[in-house]
Amino acid sequence: FEEPVPAWKARSVAFALLQEAEVVGDETELSSFDRLFPNQDSLSGKGFGNLIALPFQGKASKAGHTLFLAPESGFTASCANQWKILAEVEEIAESVLDDLIEEWQLYRESSEVFKTWKVSKNWKFSDYPKSDFARIAERCAFIAHCRDDAKTLPEPDWYILLTIAARCENGEYLSHKLSEAYPEYTPQETDAKIYHALNSTGPYCCRTIKRISGKYCRACRYYGGVRSPIVLGRPNHTYLRPGQLGQTAAMSGPPCALTKEENELIRRYYAFYRSLDQGTRKPNTSEQKHFQGVCRGRWDARNIHERAYLKYRARE
Predict the structure, then answer these.
(1) Structural domain total, the chain
(2) Least confident range of 28-42, 78-92, 213-227, 296-310
(3) Are residues 259 and 194 part of one domain?
(4) What is the extent of the structural domain holding 156?
(5) 306 touches 299 (CB < 8 A)
(6) Which residues contact 179 (CB under 8 A, 6 or more apart)?
């Protein structure tokens, strides 16, 4: 950055980018431990904490376990000169972060909430409709893995699980029950993780889960028809599968074929729909915000515009 910026701003934007960035191919299995330094928004007097995951640290650097990947290789090979990449990083102003935080509606974690891992119960719950976790686990092999392998679950998988479970019916209780099998489980740390999962991100997307634990997604009958496993737990939701026009790849709901009226809406408004879906247009009304939420798997379609676009997008 051009000048020092608050750690929470950089962390919020960076994790939002990590969740959506296409940095490896969909078929690549990737176990990651995502962390940004410093971990704290302000120093507590105990130092910066464990730096084992810091890029270019000690043994990891010598062994080639920490490196930049070359874009021209499709992010499959390392850059020849690692330090040159760092030297060429473009510095940006704090105002750039502020614009992104406002546009993406990111939240700050209150320092009063995170004191010594004690989390206030006055959480800002999101407005996602509650899902049935059992339904999700029946349909999503990754979520079933997180439930069944809780005793040995790696941290990245645990966090993804919480972004889903915390938004289900009885989410707080459920998240603790799913976490307590882990030998080092503590209610305080789990509370903090739940708070972060509810306030710093939405439910993780299927494409992100596939990049991190791709083996669970290879045979998924819903992949490409939903944006996030959270949707699988909602009753009477339409699951559209690409390339199956005229067929129903859903548990319920209408077929993928567009009606005459829906085709006309796509002809007239497709560019507008697409800009909201891809995030190139900032929603200005509650209807536009709901449309964008539907595109991202947060809510069910409730009007003909949303249904038409989802059905058309499933064909692309």
Answers:
(1) 3
(2) 28-42
(3) no
(4) 124-209
(5) no
(6) 150, 158, 162, 185, 190
114 found inside a domain = no
Spatial CA neighbour of 312 closest among 21, 288, 233, 261:
261
The C-alpha atoms of residue 257 and residue 315 are separated, in whole angstroms, by: 9
- Prior bond of 38 cis (ω within 30°): yes
Q: Are residues 15 and 98 in the same domain?
A: yes
- Give the H/E segment covering residue 188: helix 187-199
Cα angle for residues 12, 197, 221 (degrees, 5° grid): 110
* Rounded Cα distance, 30 and 254, in Å: 36
Structure tokens that stand for 86 in this block? 């760092």
Q: What is the pLDDT of residues 237-296, one digit of tens each?
A: 554 443 332 333 333 344 457 888 988 898 888 888 888 887 788 888 888 888 988 887
Alpha carbon distance 124, 112 (integer Å)? 14
Q: How far apart, in whole angstroms, are the C-alpha atoms of residue 160 and residue 165?
A: 9
pTM above 0.85, yes or no: no
CA–CA distance, 213 with 210 (Å, rounded to integer): 5
Structure tokens at 48: 């910066």
CA distances for 301 relative to 282, 297, 312, angstroms: 19, 9, 13
User: 251-261 as b/e, with b when 16 or more CB fall inside 10 Å?
Assistant: eebeebebeee
What is the C-alpha to C-alpha distance for residues 143 and 211, in angstroms, rounded to an integer? 15
**Terminal-residue alpha carbon distance, the chain:** 39
Regarding whether 165 and 252 lie in a shared domain, the answer is no
